Amino acid sequence: MSGRRDAEFEELYRTTWAHLFRVAYGVAGDRTVAEDALQAAYAKAYASWARVQAAENPEAYVRRMAVNEVLNTVRKPWFRAERSTDDPRPSPLDSHEGATVERDAVWRAVRALAPRQRAVIVLRYYEGLSEAEIARTLGCSAGTVKSQASAALTNLRAHGLTSVLAGDPA
User: Which residues contact 67 (CB under 8 A, 6 or more apart)?
Assistant: First the structure.
């Protein structure tokens, strides 16, 4: 039985890791935090494989676990105390590729959002989830999703990013 369980889990891992890593990275804004959160989510998924496998959508189940891991990590006081506010990477060079520069500006602004706002933006505009799906993923009400999205879009507009996100009515 263990061999079948391992094979099923391995299939889920193999088919979802790359996508879920991008989601975790988008929410975390930090590669190391994303990798750690995803590793913890998969470990928990393996430990409770019967529940994950029985879920209507096992990938969504693991995605929720990963997003929660990221949000739990960034809430911890040690995380905030240990993080530099300066981006150690050099500023991007001027480029004739406007889309690349714009994308960089968007991700810098998204990374500057509060963790829950960032999660809502990533899940809405990157993942294409509905408000109800985001609420289930984050374990909150649809009203909270709406208020977090509104606050996030206000912050992004303050950075001059009024029409960058598809579907933003600004």
Answer: 23, 24, 27, 119, 123, 137, 138
